[in-house]
Amino acid sequence: MPTNFLHTPIDYLNGVGPARAKLLKAELGISTYGDLANLFPNRYIDKTKYYKINELVPDSAHVQIVGKVTHIKTMGDGRSSRLVATFIDSTGSMELVWFKGQKYFKDNLKLNVPYVIYGKVSKYGSKYNIAHPDVELLKEHRSRQQSAMTPIYPSTEQLTKRNVTNKMMVRMMQQLFSEVHNSFTETLSEQIRSQHQLVDKNTAMYNAHFPKSAALLQQSIYRLKFEELFFIQMELLLQNRIRKTRIKGYAFEKVGERFNDFYSNHLPFELTGAQKRVVKEIRADMGTGAHMNRLLQGDVGSGKTIVAVLTCLLAIDNGFQACIMAPTEILAQQHYQGVSELLEKTGLKVSLLTGSVKTKARRVIHSDLEDGTLNILIGTHALIEDKVVFKNLGVAIVDEQHRFGVAQRAKLWKKNDLPPHVLVMTATPIPRTLAMSLYGDLDISVIDELPPGRKEIKTVHRYDKNRLAVFSFLKEEITKGRQIYLVYPLIEESETLDYKDLMDGYESVVREFPTPQYQVSIVHGRMKPEDKDYEMERFVKGETQIMVATTVIEVGVNVPNASVMVIESAERFGLSQLHQLRGRVGRGADQSFCILMTSYKLSTEAKTRVETMVATTDGFEIAEVDLKLRGPGDMMGTRQSGVLALRVADIVKDNDILAVARETAKELLQKDATLALPENTSIKKVLQFLQSKKGLWKYIS
């Protein structure tokens, strides 16, 4: 059989045809035989057992019964019309009911001929019935390819409407495997299969669809998951190795005067052990002459900015410039203010470039950048415009990388002859399993300590009925000289409703905290930028004690004196957003608090989110729970990496398999870096196919 057999268009499969092929492509992305073979079942139903009618119980699970249809009639009129068939076996009778497709079943059901029916049992009065059962002639049922368990395939509303049922999907799959036979190429080496006791590819593929036993199904699914995760890790590890061995970077060989002077004389506080470790990792990376591509993970308030500044100073000491790119103007301004304050006494020049910078100021920045008098440029995506030309860019620091597109990042890498070293920072803690798949080609550094003097934020959950007690607590804190955030949710679909919530909340706060004793700021998305900035500035200066806001304060506000965060309707926020909001307090030395206000009606998921927030302030622990609740695609905002488009494995549930697959890939590349050994030929071929469109294979020969 030709090797490209699995590339055969699905139109040619017996029972499909052009119209159904078009539907399968639109709904499930199935274009070829191979695509169909890789559509794995969601679950399996054991159809080895046959029930008798007298064994049925109300609301039991799905059952399978052998019997005959003795009578068919249409009952009711119009919308209440239904087709009812009397179905009997040797122990009794029951009813089969159809509300849709009545004509088809009325015309095609044969009386007094043995059928096998399958469906969920209900009881109406004294009579058992099954609505819309699967119906199959007994002789066809016996002649079919039988397995211990029936696969249930993914479906969509359109497929159901067009009568592409699960039964039809099973038939298509049976037809496919009758044509395909054993044409799946083995992708793993004999040594890896033996080491991990993996079944061969053909056995795995067949039993994933038509399991001969529960044990064989388990072995087959494990093999397919391992294979999928193994090749993802191979790609990521190869990219990492290529970058380190083939892509040159600038060698920052010395730790010079600027770095040492700042570290000894201008550092505002002692670095934590975690910060020192991360700076050493970055120094080692940038000193080799290989290109650095490092991810820096650190919770809100963990001190990533100081690490970024020290990284910039390493570049400056070696005759290079540095840039920091942030996804929003607010975040860029925050970085600019923080970096400018830290470097105020060093004589270094730092500038801010965003969309709102006026033309005259831009010209000065462009000029200073080209002649090298500008040492550090901080800004938004305005940094990647063609007219922004650096004299000698040595390091690019990107904050919250997942909010930039691939093309945007690539433009920044081309700002010098050799690509600048790259440090990616994120305050969104990424669970290890997800980091291995999203950023497995990056080296990862983690700041897992908070700066000294920071007290852990106390988080409590209060119901709406406790509001007066909460207000009383807020007054006590204000008396101590503290400031308060009061945040309302903003969900795009119901902006009007959310605005009403915010204004109602603001009015009740103003009533409870009247002037002149109290001053209240309000900030929301409908305000003019200058009004928003004015209100924020008042709060930063301490002129107002309470800021009522939407989530615009999630990033970009740093007020050490603000020690209480009240989050209204906390059940409407995601876990990572709750954690980011909580990170707005706890910036000073005082004890800080986060109060989660909710209604009594909480879904199971909302309850889990609230309980998690109360139980821990560890961002990585929170991220693990968030990953389990939301899944990797949602958590990162988009399945933008492509790496997470998994067919059979699950990043969350299969993290043990992922760890084994990564370790196996590492061991393999240590022994055979270019996959030149004959036993690794199959692995090399798969990687050549996967990487043919990425231009990476030229480095592996």
From TrEMBL:
What InterPro entries does UniProt report for this protein, alphabetically?
A: ATP-dep_DNA_helicase_RecG, DEAD/DEAH_box_helicase_dom, Helicase_ATP-bd, Helicase_C-like, NA-bd_OB-fold, P-loop_NTPase, RecG/Mfd, RecG_dom3_C
**What EC number(s) does its UniProt record assign?**
5.6.2.4
Q: Which Pfam families match?
A: DEAD, Helicase_C, RecG_dom3_C, RecG_wedge
Q: Which residues form the Helicase ATP-binding domain?
A: 285-447
BP-aspect Gene Ontology terms:
DNA recombination; DNA repair
Keyword Nucleotide-binding in annotation: yes
Organism superkingdom:
Bacteria
Q: What are the record keywords, sorted?
A: ATP-binding, DNA damage, DNA recombination, DNA repair, DNA-binding, Helicase, Hydrolase, Isomerase, Nucleotide-binding
Enumerate the catalysed reactions: ATP + H2O = ADP + phosphate + H(+); Couples ATP hydrolysis with the unwinding of duplex DNA by translocating in the 3'-5' direction
The membrane-spanning stretches of this chain are none
Residues in Helicase C-terminal domain copies: 466-633
A GO molecular function annotation here is:
hydrolase activity
Regions annotated as coiled coil: none
Which NCBIfam families does the annotation name? PRK10917.1-3, PRK10917.2-2, recG
What is the similarity comment for this entry? Belongs to the helicase family. RecG subfamily.
Q: What does this protein do?
A: Plays a critical role in recombination and DNA repair. Helps process Holliday junction intermediates to mature products by catalyzing branch migration. Has replication fork regression activity, unwinds stalled or blocked replication forks to make a HJ that can be resolved. Has a DNA unwinding activity characteristic of a DNA helicase with 3'-5' polarity.
Q: What is this protein called?
A: ATP-dependent DNA helicase RecG
